[in-house]
Design goal:
Layout (H helix, E strand, L loop, with lengths): L8 E11 L7 E15 L3 E11 L14 E5 L3 E6 L1
């Protein structure tokens, strides 16, 4: 685990996957864009502080009814990271 990031804003382009039913194995993937700050890096995840996320396909905020304090984004779902 890596800590003590310089608190630079980043933009993470990633894919959010939802499993609708274990029996049907229907998976929906949504392209997402999250702006925030890396709080911690783990082997398989980034913990993003104060995230602002939009669905790139619909341009809608995600989630729509709340502002999360943190997001945990799996590294395997990330397309790219841009440092601002």
């Amino acid at each position: 685990m890596t800590n003590n990031f310089n608190q630079k804003e980043i933009v993470v382009y990633w894919n959010d996957a939802s499993l609708f039913s274990p029996k049907r194995k229907a998976i929906a993937v949504s392209p997402m864009e999250t702006r925030g700050f890396i709080e911690k890096e783990y082997d398989d995840y980034y913990l993003i502080k104060n995230p602002i996320t939009i669905n790139r396909a619909t341009q809608e905020s995600h989630p729509q009814k709340q502002n999360p304090t943190f997001y945990l984004i799996p590294k395997g779902m990330i397309e790219k990271i841009e440092y601002q």
